[in-house]
Design a protein that fits this description.
Helix content is 21%, strand content 18%. The protein is of the alpha/beta class. Strands 10-12-13-14-15-16-17-18-19-20-21 form an 11-stranded mixed sheet, with no helix packed on it. Strands 23-22-26-24-25 form a 5-stranded mixed sheet, with helices on one face.
């Protein structure tokens, strides 16, 4: 092998300036002198060809212009882990400038020589390295572990290591580093395109305490994940974004302690792939952003029932996908533990132009949701959303065979498929009656607006306010308006009204579901607000 070229150069990761690649060929090239490295670049824009030169194929590339030849002296094959740590934290020999040249210290114009200064400096470096708990050597060209056991002797207290975007070529190198760190809890080896075991091998104890592992952009497959996971007995968080994972398999005996799984930016074959990981018993958070899924379905549970899949799942992210049908949102109500959902940038959201109505529909369809797109859902907001949903689809419910009388209430399967929560909302708030639904009229006509005076009799400092309200507006919505207008909690309000036709008499507005017109309120009347 030529000078400067490691004996194991083939398959090694290298960098050249800011570009990263993998060595696919070492040797001569026709009609040129000396040794060349054939490199397949991570960024095809850096390449020139597919590994062939003047009709001879020297190596193969995935991209037709992803490869090129470089001289060995242009390639950086990297450094060992400890060298990178010392460089990053200023603890190597070159940076001990406080001791001047050799074993001397300069005081003014005098140079004083200290015997044994090298060993003192080394001891101080050892002490400082042993204090390091959280280490980051991101982009430090780490390619190998270095001398055996040296990491364990030097950095005994490490718990968290960031090894992302280095020159690590194989999972064996990661094991060689991690096996020397007894209490390793967090490891990030993202952005290292490396080789993983393809068959079941010796299970290392290197990761026996590992809780968090990031393998983003490493080109790992799900099959390789399951093979390696045999050595992750207590892993709780696994990040696998941007790995071209398309097909999943059941993790029957591994990943049983997992609480968070990030599969974002992997184009999954279809939504049914999720069924294969649905039995992970402790999984609380699943990130599926930009995975190409177009539907979600839990076939083991019917309308209004809970699925046995994902029993512990509390937080789900399905934003930036291709979900176009509301039926997938209905399905999410089957998840027994779901509390938080992110679902922005899906086609189904384009079916409703009003963003507030869109949010209300999602809230009403998923009964246990507490956080939607990172916004907390307040109890009053849920109540309002569910009441509106019940009213908006009340006419459809009646036409589909729904009835306020339980003996006559037989809505069609089609209606229940589209609105599986509707029966539960009827139980919660009462079934809508025909008279209530007939009150739904356009709100823009001036003769339907009531001019009312709003007074707070127990708060004289609050000046009366005049408002125009639709006569079909429910008491619940009036309270919501007053909550914003008067800056008080809507749930605590007690409303009544006075009318010139009812001298000295107050009428309580005591049913949140009824519209203003139910109480025969007219323009000029006064609404009294107490809390």
């Amino acid at each position: 092998m030529a000078a400067g070229v490691p004996p194991d150069a083939l398959g090694r990761r290298v960098s050249c300036g800011t570009d990263y690649g993998t060595v696919r060929y070492v040797g001569s090239v026709s009609r040129t002198a000396g040794i060349w490295l054939g490199v397949e670049w991570d960024d095809p824009q850096r390449g020139k060809h597919d590994g062939s030169y003047e009709g001879t194929q020297y190596f193969k590339c995935r991209h037709p212009r992803g490869g090129s030849f470089i001289r060995p002296n242009k390639a950086n094959f990297g450094v060992d882990f400890l060298t990178a740590v010392k460089d990053r934290y200023g603890l190597n020999d070159k940076q001990d400038v406080q001791y001047g040249a050799g074993n001397t210290v300069v005081f003014g114009t005098k140079t004083v020589e200290f015997i044994g200064m090298d060993s003192v400096a080394e001891q101080q470096r050892q002490v400082q390295l042993n204090k390091l708990v959280d280490i980051s050597v991101r982009e430090c060209a780490v390619s190998h572990a270095g001398q055996e056991e040296e990491i364990g002797r030097t950095c005994a207290n490490m718990r968290h290591i960031n090894l992302s975007k280095n020159l690590i070529s194989s999972w064996e190198t990661v094991i060689a580093i991690a096996s020397q760190v007894q209490s390793l809890q967090t490891l990030n080896v993202s952005e290292n395109r490396m080789r993983f075991p393809s068959t079941s091998t010796f299970i290392s104890s290197a990761f026996s305490n590992l809780k968090i592992l990031a393998l983003n952009q490493t080109e790992i497959t799900w099959t390789e994940v399951l093979l390696c996971a045999q050595g992750w007995p207590v892993l709780e968080e696994l990040y696998l974004s941007s790995n071209n994972i398309t097909v999943l398999e059941r993790p029957d005996t591994v990943l049983q302690t997992l609480k968070l799984l990030d599969l974002s930016d992997n184009q999954l074959l279809d939504g049914d792939q999720l069924h294969l990981i649905a039995q992970l018993p402790r999984l609380e958070q699943l990130i599926l952003r930009n995975t190409g899924i177009s539907s979600i379905h839990f076939p083991d549970a019917g309308f209004g029932c809970k699925t046995k899949m994902f029993p512990s799942l509390k937080r789900l992210a399905i934003n930036d996908n291709k979900i176009s049908q509301w039926s997938s949102i209905n399905e999410l109500d089957k998840l027994p533990s779901l509390r938080a959902l992110q679902c922005n940038n899906n086609p189904f959201m384009d079916t409703e132009k009003n963003p507030e109505t869109l949010i209300q529909l999602i809230i009403a369809k998923i009964s246990q949701l507490e956080v939607l797109n990172n916004c907390e859902i307040l109890p009053a907001e849920r109540r309002g959303a569910e009441l509106d949903y019940r009213k908006i689809f009340g006419k459809d419910w009646l036409e589909a065979g729904g009835h306020w009388n339980p003996e006559k209430n037989k809505p069609s399967e089609e209606f229940l498929a589209a609105h599986p929560r509707y029966p539960a909302l009827c139980l919660k708030y009462g079934a809508p009656e025909e008279g209530e639904l007939k009150g739904q009229q356009p709100l823009t006509l001036k003769n339907q607006l009531l001019t009312l005076t709003i007074k707070c009799p127990e708060k004289p400092e609050q000046k009366p306010v005049e408002k125009k309200l639709p006569e079909s507006m429910t008491i619940q919505k009036v309270k919501g308006l007053l909550y914003r207008l008067l800056k008080i909690p809507g749930s605590e309000l007690k409303l009544s009204y006075e009318s010139s036709k009812l001298e000295g008499k107050e009428v309580e507005l005591d049913n949140d579901l009824k519209p203003l017109q139910f109480y025969s309120i007219e323009s000029g009347d006064c609404v009294l607000v107490r809390w």
